[in-house]
Amino acid sequence: MLNLIVLIPVAAVIALVLGAPARKTSVIAAALQAAIALLTLLTYNRSGAQFQFITRVAISPEWKVQYLLAADGLSLVMLLLTGLVTLAAVWVTPPVEKRPNLFYACLMFISAGAAGAFASQDLFFFYAFHELALIPTFLLIGLWGTGERYGAAWKITIYLALGSFILLLGLIDFYFALPEPRRTFDMLELQTLARENVIPAAAQSRPYLLLLLGFGILVSLFPFHSWAPSAYASAPTPAAMLHAGVLKKFGLYGLIRIAVPLLPAGAQHWANLLLVLLVGNVIYVGFVTIAQKRLDLMLGYSSVMHMGYIFLGIAALNVVGVTGAALLMFAHGLSIAALFALAGELRQRAGSMEFVSFGGIAKAAPFLGVTFGMVAFAAVGLPGFANFAGETLVFFGAFQPAVDSALVGNYRIATGLTLWGLVISAVYMLRAYRAIFMGEPRAAGPIFTDPRLALRLPVLLLIAALMLAGFIPEAFLTFLRPSVEALVAK
Amino acid sequence: MLAPLTLEVTVLVLGFLMLLAEAFSKSAEKTWIAKSAIYVLAVVFGWSFFTRGNAGVDLETAFYTTDATALFFKRIALITTIVVLVMSIEYRSVIARYIPQGRPGAGLVEFYSLPIFTCAGLMFMASAIDFLLIFVSLELVTISLYVLVAYMRRHISSLEAGVKYLILGALSTGFLVYGFTWLLGLTGETNLVRIGRVLPGLLAEGGRLHGSEVGLLFGLMLVLVGLGFKVAAAPFQLWVPDVYQGAPTPITALLSVGSKAAGFIVLIRFLEPFLSVAVLREKLLGVVGILAGASLLYGNLAAMPQDNLKRLLAYSSIAHAGYLLLAVSSVGSAAGGFGASGVAVAFYLAAYLLMTLLSFLVLIVVTNYSRGDDILHFNGLGKRSPFLAFAMLTAMLSLAGVPFTAGFIGKWLVFAAAMKEHRFVLVAIGVVTVAAGFYYYLRVVAAMYWQEPNDDTPIRVSGLTRASIAGLTALIFIFGIFPQPILDMLQARGPVPVRSVARL
Questions:
Q1: pTM for this structure?
Q2: Which residue of chain A comes nearest to B444, CA vs CA?
Q3: Measured distance CA(A280)–CA(A441) in Å, rounded
Q4: Integer Cα distance of A134 and B404 in angstroms
Q5: Taking an 8 Å Cβ-Cβ cutoff, which residues of chain B contact chain A?
Q6: What is the ipTM metric for this complex?
Q7: For the residues B136-159, what does the mean pLDDT come to?
Q8: Is the pLDDT assigned to residue B55 strictly greater than 80?
């Protein structure tokens, strides 16, 4: 099952390079991938938190590197996210004039990288799959992007290459911090090691810092976030959806999977640093978001800002907070993908992303107005959408973190500050909504009508998933909670 | 089981036969000579797996060892030469343009056969454990290369490259020999195994050199300077950009792969006996570390603004010397050879061989069609020839160190060795330089895929070249996912110096 989720997009890439019909192949492959991800989730045995669907192929017995695919609830939810967002991204892609096969191949390649990273339980492949996805992003932005695309492509690629390399050093350092006979790349084994607390507290702080920096750069942790808005603004719509929706979650997933369970003392050692940075994410970047005059940049900054909440959940180090973070990852992936899809449609119609060039669209195009409004409310954190459930858990978790009592006060301050982020995001989202959809249409502006079916269905799909997880969060929490418990609870 | 020397002798005989065949060949196109040489070298490569090891050889009196490492580096030399011959065939029209033509095809076979002699020299170097053999084989390599670098004698920059290489090469050889004589004078030995045996006694309490290791260090530094030239490490890199750019492209490839590999095997063998002595160890590794840091910074930073691909690859060659030296400077303190860092060096060189040869091979083909070797001549290659563009993409990604390519495994091993030995300053430099590397290698990728082609003539690739390009591309991916065959090769047998693949 997991093999299929990873290999279907790979097969699609090969078929596309060999000249298969671009759109048809990709949509079919993405639909298959999403369906199998859903099916895997449904057939997952929830009675325990153990890894299932295991495939093992030894690659190098001497270093104990193996191609090891396995999934617990956390991986499966992330794989479902990958499948859904890939399907939506491929589906909404407008006709590509320049070299369509290469375009779709790059998209499917990113999807393969993300799926591989979430399904691999071997550190080598976990890392390798993710970094592999950098290259198609580089090509996508440079070849099909808009605006300052060259600059944006270079910025994201160099930034993420740097982040990945620091992450690699962190993983190496982490590996050497394990006691000699127990060193392994096998994340299943690592999970058993986590319960035994094998790494002495003093040896945890350096690898944790490297991992935090490495993963943090990949997730646009303040102040390493400046690559994200420009890249998402310039990237073609489906690339922005895939990157912001799925690929960026890799860093958070890595923190939950490796750094939190195995280096808890390191996490406490650097807790204050992380709190300061994540408050920077929410408050500082939040204000920057309010100041944006263009929809694409605003969405880019808002996606950076929301990472702050997820970091807060992870920093809490307790089951509630980390589960909330995981749910929020899922929710944010869906909502930001839907937002980018709709924004891409607006850009295509209007040829511009400035707020001043829009107005009164809701009247002419009610579908766009309603769906954008729903997703914007989801992103702000209104009840009824998955984001609300995730954020609530995060705040509860962070208010009562599983850390030294000396640190709890700082956590409460950070939680209090980030709560203001909800107000900030309401301000920028509602202002954007008013500027674009309300009021009178621009006299000389473009004429809007409701979009084609190929945009409606994927957006509705994403919204449906958001609302499902919003009204019945338990449907996802039953998968997430046991896995997180296995990782966090001692 | 073959006697060890058979390999080198066969290669040498092949070189002479080629020269002889030239005299009797009627045809103007002499490519058949090069093609048969390729097949013979391929057979020799196969033979190398059936060579008798060191059993029964007393290494203390020998000049020549046949351990796994030696065989591994011989294979590197052979593969390099094979690909260089493929390149030379592809390059023959350029050569013909720049040498005086008494009769059609004149001078081509010398161009095909001199790399064979270089190859023999490299193979001897891989096995040399005595100062004398090291020196003689090094000269065999260098002198053939002097001729080859200046081979296009109507081309001004080839001549310039030849002169620069000759003068600086001769100077570096002088340093090397002077260092050898110092060490001989102080230890009374030329065999590296013997030196390793007597050194602790000489430096111990009551030994002749006790408390005065300055002389030894002086000799060691001289040798390091000499070898620094050979492997193109900063601050001995001044010759590299001009020589690489001016030399015929196949020879640039030979220089950047063959002579670097041979330089590193000599460096490793040479350092090993001295590293076992604590007094020398710290100082030697410190110096190697400085060379590594300087090469990393200089090579990577200077590569960023280059617009000429050959020159860019020259700087990247300096940069990779830096990564290799970083591995050398991270030798574990545990006794018994180079361990993990030796494996890192060997693997990195094997990966470097694949990706560098691949990029030079594509460069030659593209240059033939675009009449220039600047990055902008690669514009739109993704459209003109998806095959070549994909090969170049693979080479560049591997050089930059993207996972699932051999280059990534190499970098991973190097940095794992460095992290294990806590070389944090060098690792921090490495973080900067790896990011810089992504920039300049991806510039080529950006040119190939982002830009529109300057002209739309499709590029035809001959069968042999196409097969070589496909083979190298495939190997980069195969060793990027399954590195085990190379590790097995390093471990096959033989105690010196890579004793076993230390677990990471």
A1: 0.91
A2: A139
A3: 37
A4: 13
A5: 382-383, 386, 397, 400, 402-404, 408, 412, 415-416, 419-420, 427, 431, 434-435, 438-439, 442, 445-446, 449-450, 481-484, 487, 501, 503-504
A6: 0.90
A7: 90
A8: no
Number of domains in chain A: 1
C-alpha distance from A449 to closest chain B C-alpha (Å): 34
pLDDT above 60 for A331: yes
> Residues 6 or more apart from A377 whose CB is under 8 A from it?
A384, A385, A429
Asked, for residue B428, whether it belongs to a domain, the answer is: yes
Joined together, the tokens standing for residue B34 give 């090069």
Partner residue facing B483 (CB), from A60, A138, A142: A60
- pLDDT (tens digit per residue) in B280-335: 888 889 999 999 999 999 999 999 999 999 999 999 999 999 999 999 988 876 65
Q: Within 13 Å and on the Cβ side, how many CA atoms surround B352?
A: 32
**Distinct helix (H) and strand (E) counts, chain B:** 20, 0
User: Between B415, B431, B501, which is nearest A172 by CB?
Assistant: B415
Confidence of residue A215 (pLDDT cuts 50, 70, 90): very high
A237, pLDDT greater than 70: yes
Q: Note whether residue B498 is domain-resident.
A: no
Backbone angles phi, psi at A444, to 5 degrees: -95, 5
Domain count, chain B: 1
**Interface contact A158-B439, CB threshold 8 A:** yes
Instruction: Decide if B504 is inside a domain.
Output: no
Whether residue B501 lies inside any domain: the answer is no
Q: What value does the mean pLDDT of chain A take?
A: 88
Range of the structural domain that residue B132 is part of: 6-491
CB nearest to B403's CB, from A60, A132, A158: A132
Query: Nearest chain A Cα to B419, which residue?
Result: A173
Q: Are A279 and A308 in contact (CB under 8 A)?
A: yes
